[in-house]
Design goal:
By secondary structure, the chain is an alpha/beta fold. Helices cover 48% and strands 15% of the residues. The protein has nine helices and seven strands. The chain has a seven-stranded parallel beta sheet, sandwiched between helices. Strand 2, helix 2 and strand 3 form a beta-alpha-beta unit. The chain is globular. The chain starts with 7 loop residues before the first strand and ends in a 6-residue tail after the last strand. The structure holds NADP nicotinamide-adenine-dinucleotide phosphate.
Length: 248
């Protein structure tokens, strides 16, 4: 069950947090994992080393998903070097929070360039080799707030809702090529992104999370791993919520 031997997987933002857990889990399942990062080369190397230490195969690839040219070049190189691309986990993302009246244009542009345009660019690059191979898996990383909304997260929530629209549309467009496209919507997960949250905010989130605990990056990776597996072959255009029951 859930083996990915012989497959090549690209995890954007695989250097830290949720992406790192996804990269490690796909590596444990037998995939050759390409760990993308933008600034954290050392962290990306650590992720790749962790995969290699468990007997897996991994390499790193640094590019900014918001830079279309750099992304296209890097993904082309991956396909040329490794001969295929079976799995894309479009996970790279940033959060810029602020109440509506304080949202700046430059923050909106940066958020959408990374979280939306970046994810769609990666999917566009991955779809060619997947179409050629007549199969593939794309998983977009959305968020519980993309479905629920949240005070102070208008811009971020909008970017994560956009990702859901993209996932569902690409799922419909490429189903005939045997490519499944889904989204995972995590709740509150312990990573660098959430470390900056204030204590009262964290307490509130725990109160509205029926399972009563913060999620781990590994909780999210397990859902991603399932969607990337052969066993999930009849699942496409779906949103898998990993949120401790916060939104049902
Ligand atoms: P994180 O710990 O801040 O890690 C972000 C990752 O994305 C890092 O690997 C970072 O690379 C990479 N990245 C950021 N901008 C990039 C760019 N322009 N190009 C390439 N890589 C880039 O975040 P996280 O909490 O693991 O979040 C991962 C994803 O899950 C995001 O899409 C986030 O929106 C989503 N999510 C998180 C939570 C949560 O509670 N943590 C909840 C719902 C959804 P460097 O190391 O090079 O900086």
């Amino acid at each position: 069950m859930f083996r990915l031997d012989g497959k090549v997987a690209l995890v954007t933002g695989g250097s830290r947090g949720i992406g790192r857990a996804c990269a490690e889990m796909l590596g444990e399942m037998g995939a050759t994992v390409v760990v993308n990062y933008v600034k954290g080369e050392t962290a990306a190397k650590e992720t790749a080393d962790a995969i290699l230490a468990k007997g897996g195969k991994a390499e790193i690839s640094g590019f900014d998903v918001a830079d279309t040219k750099a992304t296209e070049t890097a993904i082309d190189e991956v396909v040329k070097k490794l001969g295929r691309l079976d799995i894309l986990v479009a996970n790279a993302g940033i959060a810029v929070d602020g109440l509506l009246l304080r949202i700046k244009d430059e923050d909106l542009d940066r958020l959408f360039a990374t979280n939306v345009r970046g994810a769609i660019t990666c999917a566009r690059c991955a779809i060619r080799p997947m179409s050629k191979a007549k199969g593939g898996r794309i998983v977009f990383m959305s968020s519980v707030v993309g479905e629920m909304g949240n005070v102070g997260q208008t811009a971020y929530a909008a970017s994560k809702a956009a990702v859901l629209g993209a996932a569902k549309s690409i799922a419909r467009e490429y189903a005939s090529r045997n490519i499944t496209v889904n989204a995972v919507a995590p709740g509150f997960i312990e990573t660098d992104m959430t470390h900056a949250m204030t204590e009262p905010m964290k307490e509130y989130i725990l109160k509205v999370t029926p399972l009563g605990r913060v999620g781990s990056a590994r909780d999210v990776a397990s859902a991603v791993a399932y969607l990337c597996s052969d066993e999930a072959g009849y699942v496409t255009g779906q949103v898998l919520r990993v949120n401790g029951g916060m939104h049902v």
